[in-house]
């Protein structure tokens, strides 16, 4: 079956636009997919052997279709003009200044992308909002498009939020739990929804493709992320009780997760959730609730983020207290810097907060992550809010190439990301190379605490007491 859409353009070659449209190209060889970005370095990387994002399985998909029906370019205007359907997958960071700073999403990139579509389009288009955005963004996009469009050109707006999780993006895209397409409840709106649905129908069972109105679709994305993050904050709040009582959070999560009404997923206690979505989307929901004059609702969701901050601070306090109430000039090996395993992404990673706190306490920090570059780590640690400039920072922080290098002469190891390779380390070797007493703080509950104790380590795990 051929769909009516023959050419797709995606604005934004990031973590969402790149993998999503690469999979569309892979699954729909009859559709030409062009991914554009204003960032030339990023586009060059997409056209090279070294893709700009690390995502298991992504290389295979891109290398299979690139140059055939998948293209990466900075020629935005040409790509817009040729396309029947345009995905808008640009970044929507939390606003740093002005109204709603710290909560609301900065829609400047969405707006400029929308204006660009309006300006250059010479034929009718379906414009699909793919970035996570506050409710009503589609409406604003529609207003901009309609006010600026030429002659007989019509724009149909759809909301098609992406639910992929980094690290499992390709699998999530190939086998999605659902695809959500929001549209205007008009004959034209339904037609546009149908055109997009036909693309997904090439590989997604029809009953998993949900169509709703625009508002439901936009809110569902924020709601899904808020509900997922809420589970993590709930289990993390319980982990504090476990540490104080002697209950074990993994046992509690297992016992609760066996209840089919609760289910086992997203109940892994941790040093705190990170990533580009959870915090941003919840704060968006908080802002929306306040705007709608629903302060109790706003306070309810805000608490999910507050517990996440508390969890990170609590872990740092435990580390300092255990290391005899001071970490000044102590050497701390931080294992993992990405916000979760199988990605090189560090956005809102708990490791950033931990490392900043260690630096502020004058510790010496050695960081190892299998996929995050030294440059990215220094960028994250020198962001505004930290008093150190890069030169000062480099006196306190070293980025190294292995967990062994990080641990040599260290007083403590802190596991910040759950990379599989950390489970396989030769801990006898590590123990021998460390200062004694040798401490391990497992912020991800991935290590075998009993085995480590038998080697001689003093082990502290989130959600477990050390009586
Ligand atoms: C999330 C949503 O899962 C995805 O549907 C949405 O499209 C984007 O936001 P992502 O942020 O990529 O995806 O990863 P996710 O697997 O949800 O993990 C987010 C954070 O929560 C990570 O820091 C992870 O380590 C943490 N986490 C996850 C836990 O601490 N415990 C868990 O049980 C699960
Ligand atoms: P996400 O995780 O949501 O995909 P990223 O920051 O990884 O976010 O990617 C968004 C991309 O969108 C960036 O590479 C950025 O350069 C690009 N971008 C922003 N504005 C535009 C625009 N008007 N046209 C094309 N690309 C854009």
UniProtKB/TrEMBL annotation:
Catalytic activity entry: UDP-alpha-D-glucose + 2 NAD(+) + H2O = UDP-alpha-D-glucuronate + 2 NADH + 3 H(+)
Binding residues annotated for substrate, in chain numbering: 162-166, 221-225, 261, 268-274, 339-340, 444
EC code: 1.1.1.22
GO cellular component: nucleus
Record GO terms (molecular function): NAD binding; UDP-glucose 6-dehydrogenase activity
Alphabetical list of Pfam families matching this protein: UDPG_MGDP_dh, UDPG_MGDP_dh_C, UDPG_MGDP_dh_N
Organism: Gigaspora rosea
Class of enzymatic activity (EC top level): oxidoreductase
Record-annotated active site: 277
Keywords recorded for this protein, A-Z: NAD, Oxidoreductase
Domain UDP-glucose/GDP-mannose dehydrogenase C-terminal, first and last residues per copy: 333-449
A GO biological process held by the record: UDP-glucuronate biosynthetic process
Range of residues in the leader sequence: none
NCBIfam families reported for this sequence: NDP-sugDHase (TIGR03026)
Protein name, entry field: UDP-glucose 6-dehydrogenase
Binding-site residues, NAD(+): 12-17, 37, 42, 90-94, 131-132, 166, 277-280, 347
InterPro entries noted in UniProt: 6-PGluconate_DH-like_C_sf, NAD(P)-bd_dom_sf, UDP-Glc/GDP-Man, UDP-Glc/GDP-Man_DH_C, UDP-Glc/GDP-Man_DH_C_sf, UDP-Glc/GDP-Man_DH_dimer, UDP-Glc/GDP-Man_DH_N, UDPglc_DH_euk
Family membership: Belongs to the UDP-glucose/GDP-mannose dehydrogenase family.
Pathway: Nucleotide-sugar biosynthesis; UDP-alpha-D-glucuronate biosynthesis; UDP-alpha-D-glucuronate from UDP-alpha-D-glucose: step 1/1
SUPFAM superfamilies in the record: 6-phosphogluconate dehydrogenase C-terminal domain-like (SSF48179), NAD(P)-binding Rossmann-fold domains (SSF51735), UDP-glucose/GDP-mannose dehydrogenase C-terminal domain (SSF52413)
């Amino acid at each position: 079956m051929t769909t009516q859409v023959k050419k797709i353009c995606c604005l934004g070659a990031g973590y969402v636009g790149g993998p999503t449209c690469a999979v569309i190209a892979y699954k729909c060889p009859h559709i030409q997919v062009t991914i554009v970005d204003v960032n030339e370095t990023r586009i060059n990387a997409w056209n090279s052997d070294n893709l700009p994002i690390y995502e298991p399985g992504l290389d295979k998909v891109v290398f299979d279709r690139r140059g055939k029906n998948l293209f990466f370019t900075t020629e935005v205007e040409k790509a817009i003009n040729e396309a029947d359907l345009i995905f808008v997958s640009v970044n929507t960071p939390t606003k740093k200044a002005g109204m709603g700073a710290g909560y609301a999403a900065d829609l400047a990139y969405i707006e400029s992308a929308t204006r660009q579509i309006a300006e250059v389009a010479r034929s009718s288009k379906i414009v699909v909002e793919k970035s996570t955005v506050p409710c009503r963004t589609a409406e604003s996009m529609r207003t901009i498009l309609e006010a600026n469009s030429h002659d007989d050109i019509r724009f149909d707006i759809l909301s098609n939020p992406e639910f992929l999780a980094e690290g499992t993006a390709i699998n999530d895209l190939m086998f999605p739990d659902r695809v959500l397409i929001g549209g205007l409840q008009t004959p034209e709106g339904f037609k546009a929804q149908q055109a997009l649905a036909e693309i997904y129908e090439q590989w997604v069972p029809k009953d998993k493709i949900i169509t709703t109105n625009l508002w439901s679709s936009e809110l569902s994305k924020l709601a899904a992320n808020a509900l997922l993050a809420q589970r993590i904050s709930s289990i993390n709040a319980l982990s504090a009780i476990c540490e104080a009582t002697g209950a074990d959070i993994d046992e509690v999560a297992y016992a609760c997760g066996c209840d089919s009404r609760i289910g086992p997923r997203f109940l892994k206690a941790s040093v705190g959730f990170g990533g580009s979505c959870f915090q941003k989307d919840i704060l968006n929901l908080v802002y929306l609730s306040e705007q709608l004059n629903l302060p109790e609702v706003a306070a309810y969701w805000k608490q999910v983020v507050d517990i996440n901050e508390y969890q990170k601070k609590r872990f740092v306090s435990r580390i300092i207290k255990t290391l005899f109430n001071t970490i000044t000039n102590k050497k701390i090996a931080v294992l993992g810097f990405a916000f979760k395993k199988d990605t090189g992404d560090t956005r809102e990673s708990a490791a950033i907060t931990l490392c900043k706190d260690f630096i502020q306490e004058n510790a010496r920090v050695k960081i190892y992550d299998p996929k995050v570059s030294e440059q990215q780590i220094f960028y994250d640690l020198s962001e505004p809010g930290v008093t150190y400039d890069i030169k000062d920072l480099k006196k306190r922080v070293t980025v190294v190439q292995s967990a062994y290098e990080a641990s040599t002469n260290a007083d403590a190891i802190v596991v910040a990301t759950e990379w599989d390779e950390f489970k396989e380390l030769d801990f006898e070797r590590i123990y021998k190379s460390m200062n004694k007493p040798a401490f391990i703080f497992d912020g991800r509950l991935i290590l075998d605490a009993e085995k480590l104790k038998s080697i001689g380590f003093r082990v502290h795990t989130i959600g477990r007491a050390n009586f």
